[in-house]
Amino acid sequence: LTNAGARPGDRLVLTKPIGNGILATAMKQGSVAASVADEVIALMRELNARASQSALDVGSRCATDVTGFGLLGHASHIARASRVTIQLRMAAVPVLPGAVDAWRAGARPGGGTRNLDYVTPLVAWGSASDSDRALLTDPQTSGGLLVVVPSTRIQEYLARVPRAVEIGEVSPQGEAAIVLG
Q: How many CB atoms lie within 10 A of CB 116?
């Protein structure tokens, strides 16, 4: 799998919810319930082996992990390398419970600010709120995969990978590397 293999019409799948960087910061501040902390830690311990093998099994050519550059940082690498535009549906992006509240309460990872600065000129933000922007650029520790799946195999991939969610699609290269809807 490479970040240069996305083609217009392919679908985008995220295999783990985002927000663990914000929640890890809140955990360090002592402002997260133990149950939320346990969920975040358990999610970070989950490997991406099944998601990556399933990507190969359904004929995916393109994928990236979602780690320190956040979802949009890694998506921008796919857009540039593949010479396409990434169309994301913000409402479809899975977010860890408590992440928005933690961000609103002041849990702000420094890497998220740098990520936002980096991707801002590459993104057509639409009506994305400040918290949406923070979540989409939140640096993840042991995050999931952003998998580009051929449209004819999307249902098969989703059935194979628990928690996987279709969050958008690939379109021909436009003015913005990423368009939020």
A: 19
First-residue to last-residue Cα distance in the chain: 27
Question: DSSP string covering 26-80, please?
Answer: HHHTT-S-HHHHHHHHHHHHS-SHHHHHHHHHTT--EEEE--TTHHHHHHHHHHH
146 bridge partner residues: 14, 64
Q: Give the separation between CA 58 and CA 39, rounded to whole angstroms.
A: 29
Give the pLDDT confidence of 80-124 residue by residue, as tens digits.
999 999 999 999 999 999 999 999 999 999 999 999 999 999 999
Query: What average pLDDT does this structure show over 128-132?
Result: 97
DSSP label of 1: -
Quick one: which of 78, 57, 74, 64 has its CA closest to 145? 64
The whole-number average pLDDT for the span 163-177 is: 98
CA distance 20 to 1: 25
Q: How buried is 56 (Cβ within 10 angstroms: 0-12 exposed, 13-18 middle, 19+ buried)?
A: exposed
Listed in sequence order, the residues at least 6 apart from 53 whose beta carbon sits closer than 8 Å to its beta carbon are none
